[in-house]
Amino acid sequence: MNQAQSQDIDTFKGIALFTPGGDLIYCIDPKKQGRWHSHLCAGLQEILNLPEPPHFLVPCYTATIDRWLDPQTQQVQTYAEAHPPVLRYQPLLNAVFRTHVVWQAAPVTEGLCDPILLATYRTSFPQLWEEHELVVHFERSLASSRFIEPVSSQPSIKHSPQPLECTLYLFVAGQNPATERILQSLRQVLEQFNYPYILKVIDVLKYPEQAEIYQVTATPTLVKVSPKPTRRLVGNLDNTEKLLQLLTFPEV
């Protein structure tokens, strides 16, 4: 592998935006050029049906990671920081960004992340204080197609249909290192397909009624909720072929 290939694979900027309830929407930008905070706020607005983008979450509920190639040592360096309200989510951040680093506490300007001030938004954005257990990977393609208004008056060019966004429920038993490994492994497989997706992690120990609704009898189980038909994959979530079938093929 040459240096250019290594940089394409190993270097990126990642931004994560949490809600007060613990939901997560994040992005990975290999070119480090996107203005992702606005897109992540718009993504939360659409997913949670908010009245407007929740820009007040920035920066208090954000975390960022930067991986770059040191020109002198030719080694990939990493710096990761999270604001104090989300610093406790380090295991989840390491899972979604495929890292094993200690996240630093981001410096906070006095008065910027005042809990009392942030709580004033609760009546206008109650969904943000609810626990939906969402882990959403926000793609650049979604940013361009969903949230940017067209500026050209020229006739549009027809493209091949894009895959529909998948809603996936991952049923696990407890939050532990095994669950983190499953989440990281699943994300690595999903990233290979270029499918937009929303992943909801459901702990059957906390929400047994959800396991009953979706007829989950063993963990881990991955359920494709939409688009229909509903399909499920039990056990080995590293099986790329079976996961691709779950995402694309109708039930027989």
Automatic annotation (TrEMBL):
<dbReference type="InterPro" id="IPR039022">
    <property type="entry name" value="KaiB-like"/>
</dbReference>
<dbReference type="Pfam" id="PF07689">
    <property type="entry name" value="KaiB"/>
</dbReference>
<dbReference type="InterPro" id="IPR011649">
    <property type="entry name" value="KaiB_domain"/>
</dbReference>
<dbReference type="InterPro" id="IPR036249">
    <property type="entry name" value="Thioredoxin-like_sf"/>
</dbReference>
<protein>
    <submittedName>
        <fullName>Circadian clock KaiB family protein</fullName>
    </submittedName>
</protein>
<feature type="domain" description="KaiB">
    <location>
        <begin position="169"/>
        <end position="249"/>
    </location>
</feature>
